[in-house]
């Protein structure tokens, strides 16, 4: 699956949308979802929590492993994707769409890559 | 050190497999979704490359006596073309490996060891063969091993062989022609389903894989990797060396004392580890140490190997050996060694999942048993 050009990416394999009214949507990339395998549990920050760019804000469990979720941005969490909490397999099937994880009111971001930069980083 | 490749390596790559280092072999972990592969084996059929397994042939007039001496089972009592699950232990009773032994002829046996222990088993058998009129031969390069597992396995094999499959019982084998190739066809497996293991020449592996794939297309056969093999065996309550079994444990510690046959009549009943195992048997009877149990969680977080099992006060009472989401039960399951006082099915204990106590219930093994 190619990396959508309208998103920005971290080296920890999260993606971030451009802000709308200051709020960006966060998810993990198809590359990350493929590497994890079937995702069975998603732990996300709570609405109202402040997350910090580059720091752990949740975890993703797959059949074989547990991985930390790193926030690509600093700011207040405004919404979490309850659908993905109920059906974590969405992260595998629609990583860039229905499998989004949470929304954040962005104050600052980590160093971000564009789609070409991320694709080059993953060696795809 | 570079990884060893099976005869099917190019085929796995053409199928887009995610590969993994398993005991020095580059093996398919999964081809797509491991959950889908798991469910295919439970409901239809799956095709596995198990060529990493370690085959050792033991032959000669005293081959049976040698195996009775070297292993804990009563191997010489096995009928020709029958198989047995058994173990090889140290003098102190510690488990070196668990094995399947196939009696391929009156004076010949095929010993199949785990990939990670194949050299250890080969060395131990070679050393223990001293004084016996028997030959121990490393046949790891002589065989590739495919497995077809699942309720449709019988029908798929039947399209490719004239062998009398209904007469081939569980834990039996036959020399057979499958897709015009000579193989050992065994009704064994590590999934909890009906199925077959096909020992063939490495040069025939690709032909057989392709023929089985074509024969199984209408039955829903899919290629399966080691990831689902692990969750299938866990649901079936089968131990995995390095997890439930180790040199620190005897077969009695693992709840598998039945594999130790003190009633052997060969070699005057003597075998490697007998004295220590008699003591372990007595201890298991009177003062059992930790017991191997099943755990089922109602939560979503998965108890994983090495996590601590704790009681209501948070005191450590055991340790997880294997844990995974169960595709069949749709909840996390695990095997664990827990103190005997907490080992009764129905007991509620907890697992320390990265700092948070997740309640789990002790259940009898296996988690899954197929309808027969």
UniProtKB/TrEMBL annotation, chain A:
Belongs to the GcvH family. Residues 23-105 form the Lipoyl-binding domain. The keyword Kinase does not apply. Its cofactor is (R)-lipoate. PROSITE patterns: BIOTINYL_LIPOYL (PS50968), LIPOYL (PS00189). SUPFAM superfamilies: Single hybrid motif. One of its GO terms (biological process) is glycine decarboxylation via glycine cleavage system. This is Glycine cleavage system H protein. It comes from Kitasatospora cheerisanensis KCTC 2395. It holds the Pfam family GCV_H. The modification N6-lipoyllysine is found at residue 64. CDD domains: GCS_H (cd06848). One of its GO terms (cellular component) is cytosol. PANTHER family: GLYCINE CLEAVAGE SYSTEM H PROTEIN, GLYCINE CLEAVAGE SYSTEM H PROTEIN-RELATED. Binds 1 lipoyl cofactor covalently. Keywords: Lipoyl. The gene is gcvH. The glycine cleavage system is composed of four proteins: P, T, L and H.
TrEMBL record, chain B:
It comes from the Bacteria. Residues 290-369 form the Aminomethyltransferase C-terminal domain. Keywords: Aminotransferase, Transferase. Pfam families: GCV_T (PF01571), GCV_T_C (PF08669). Residues 10-264 form the GCVT N-terminal domain. GO terms for cellular component: cytosol; glycine cleavage complex. The keyword Lyase does not apply. Coiled coil: none annotated. It catalyses: N(6)-[(R)-S(8)-aminomethyldihydrolipoyl]-L-lysyl-[protein] + (6S)-5,6,7,8-tetrahydrofolate = N(6)-[(R)-dihydrolipoyl]-L-lysyl-[protein] + (6R)-5,10-methylene-5,6,7,8-tetrahydrofolate + NH4(+). Substrate binds at residue 197. One of its GO terms (biological process) is glycine decarboxylation via glycine cleavage system. Belongs to the GcvT family. The glycine cleavage system catalyzes the degradation of glycine. The glycine cleavage system is composed of four proteins: P, T, L and H. This is Aminomethyltransferase. It comes from Kitasatospora cheerisanensis KCTC 2395. The gene is gcvT.
């Amino acid at each position: 699956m190619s990396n959508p050009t309208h998103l920005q990416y971290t080296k920890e394999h999260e993606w971030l949308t451009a802000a709308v009214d200051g709020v960006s949507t966060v998810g993990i990339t198809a590359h990350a979802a493929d590497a994890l395998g079937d995702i069975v549990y998603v732990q996300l920050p709570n609405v109202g929590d402040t997350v910090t760019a580059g720091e752990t804000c949740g975890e993703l469990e797959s059949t074989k492993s547990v991985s930390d979720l790193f926030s690509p941005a600093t700011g207040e969490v405004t919404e979490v994707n309850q659908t993905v909490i109920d059906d974590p397999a969405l992260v595998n099937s629609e990583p860039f769409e229905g499998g989004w994880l949470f929304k954040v009111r962005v104050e600052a971001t980590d160093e971000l890559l564009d789609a070409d930069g991320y694709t080059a980083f993953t060696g795809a | 050190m570079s990884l060893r490749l099976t005869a099917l390596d190019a085929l796995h790559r053409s199928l887009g497999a995610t590969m993994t280092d398993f005991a020095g072999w580059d093996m398919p972990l999964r081809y797509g979704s491991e959950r889908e592969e798991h469910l295919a084996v439970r409901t239809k059929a799956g095709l596995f490359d198990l060529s990493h397994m370690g085959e050792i042939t033991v032959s000669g007039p005293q081959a049976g006596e040698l195996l009775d001496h070297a292993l804990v089972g009563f191997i010489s009592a096995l009928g020709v073309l029958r198989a047995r699950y058994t173990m090889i232990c140290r003098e102190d009773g510690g488990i070196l490996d668990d094995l399947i032994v196939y009696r391929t002829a009156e004076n010949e046996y095929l010993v199949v060891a785990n990939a990670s222990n194949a050299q250890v088993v080969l060395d131990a058998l070679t050393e223990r063969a001293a004084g016996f009129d028997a030959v121990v031969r490393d046949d790891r390069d002589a065989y590739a091993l495919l497995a077809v597992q699942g309720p449709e396995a019988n029908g798929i094999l039947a399209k490719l062989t004239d062998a009398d499959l209904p007469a081939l019982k569980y834990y039996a084998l036959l020399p057979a022609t499958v897709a015009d190739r000579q193989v050992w066809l065994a009704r064994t497996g590590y999934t909890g389903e009906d199925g077959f293991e096909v020992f063939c020449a490495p040069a025939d592996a690709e032909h057989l894989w392709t023929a089985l794939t074509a024969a199984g297309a209408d039955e829903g056969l899919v290629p399966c990797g080691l990831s689902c093999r692990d969750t299938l065996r866990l649901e079936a309550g089968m131990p995995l060396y390095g997890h439930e079994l180790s040199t620190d444990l005897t077969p009695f510690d693992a709840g598998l004392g039945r594999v130790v046959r003190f009633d052997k009549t060969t070699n005057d009943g003597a075998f490697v580890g007998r004295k220590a195992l008699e003591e372990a048997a007595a201890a298991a009877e009177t003062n059992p140490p930790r017991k191997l149990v099943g755990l089922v969680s109602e939560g979503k977080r998965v108890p994983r190997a090495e996590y601590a099992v704790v009681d209501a006060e948070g005191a450590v009472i055991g340790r997880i050996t294997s844990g995974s989401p169960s595709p069949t039960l749709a909840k996390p399951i695990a095997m664990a060694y827990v103190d005997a006082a907490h080992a009764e099915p129905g007991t509620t204990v907890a697992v320390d999942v990265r700092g948070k106590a997740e309640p789990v219930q002790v259940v009898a093994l296996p988690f899954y048993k197929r309808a027969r």
